[in-house]
Amino acid sequence: MENMFNNRRISRFIFINILVITFYISIMFIDRGFIMLDTNLSVKNVSKYFKNNIKANNNISIEFQTHEITALIGHNGAGKTTLLNQIGGLIIPSEGQIHINNIDVIKEHSKVRKLVSTMPQFQVPLKGVSMLQAIESIAMIKGFSSKVSKKKAEEIISSLQLDNWKNIEGEKLSGGLQRLTSFAMTVIDEAPVIILDEPTNDVDPIRRILMWKYLRKLADKGSIIIIVTHNLFEVEKYADRYILLDKGCVKKDINISNRYSQNIKHMLCVYDIDNIDISMFSSDFVTKYDIEQKKLTVSLKEENIYRAITIVLEVLKNGKATSYDLKIENLYDNYEDMINE
Ligand SMILES: Nc1ncnc2c1ncn2[C@@H]1O[C@H](COP(=O)(O)OP(=O)(O)OP(=O)(O)O)[C@@H](O)[C@H]1O
């Protein structure tokens, strides 16, 4: 009888201990960002005027989604960095509000600091510390133990294939390697909101892919990723959405996956064709003619390809053009038109 009583007490003791341990582990994981709750980032009617009367951002409203990589694109001076800096709380909007999980970025900046990690456009100073030390110390500043920080730093160095340079001092690293170090320092704590200003500049093609893959992993875990870049091919390949800024305004906000599933356009280029011979296309299709290069560009929906190719073959047969090519229209092809719209 006494034995049974003791067994019950032991079982209860074990059960309570398991509950307490589970509770603390959950708190620790949520706090460290291993378990990420969905994040909400809302930019509403944000404008930014600088002293020289420049309106760098003009009434911008955007809802950023968790699990999503959003690319901010646009000409030099379009207002991309200004927008990033306001989201990161580095500069204050002249008008409008920015909220992360209903926390006001402007009024409650200290609360927001934990939620956002920023990689600036310019190189961070890395004097006197090695790549590994620089990444590790950021992890410790963000609250990880020294053991966990070292492990995490080693992991990210290895995923970006940087092991050969990890013990080299910052100032002795090449521009691209410094950029990669800065990237690792930004993403190490897997913040709910990660903003990066032209992170792939100076980075080689293989490691660019590794950077984008790393960002995809973080987005899959729940981070909101916002990246400024001028590389439209990378945007199209790796981002979920792009926002085109022009003269401080949002000109386009496109979900890339939808764009492809709903509206694939093809581009037919016909070479060495004279102006007088383009009417066969221009009467039926949307065309653009470059007089200097004698190049005709025809924008086509899938259902019109066959008809257009039939016309091209006829034109070639009659010696009125020398060659043609056909491809799916990409963001780079459309960029100038979008800006001029
Ligand atoms: N601190 C500042 N003081 C005055 N004007 C500024 C300041 N920062 C930016 N600007 C101006 O605001 C406008 C937007 O600049 P911003 O850096 O946001 O553009 P961007 O799109 O990031 O350009 P880039 O692609 O060249 O980096 C530009 O005309 C710029 O000169």
TrEMBL record:
PANTHER family: ABC TRANSPORTER ATP-BINDING PROTEIN (PTHR42711), ABC TRANSPORTER ATP-BINDING PROTEIN NATA (PTHR42711:SF5)
Any one Gene Ontology molecular-function term assigned to this protein's record: ATP hydrolysis activity
Keywords: ATP-binding, Membrane, Nucleotide-binding, Transmembrane, Transmembrane helix, Transport
Coiled-coil segments on the chain, per record: none
Family, per entry: Belongs to the ABC transporter superfamily.
Cross-referenced CDD domains: ABC_DR_subfamily_A
Entry protein name: ABC transporter ATP-binding protein
Entries under SMART domains matching the protein: AAA
Record has Transferase as a keyword: no
Segments traversing the membrane: 12-30
Organism: Lysinibacillus mangiferihumi
Matches recorded under Pfam families: ABC_tran (PF00005)
SUPFAM superfamilies: P-loop containing nucleoside triphosphate hydrolases
Domain ABC transporter: 41-272
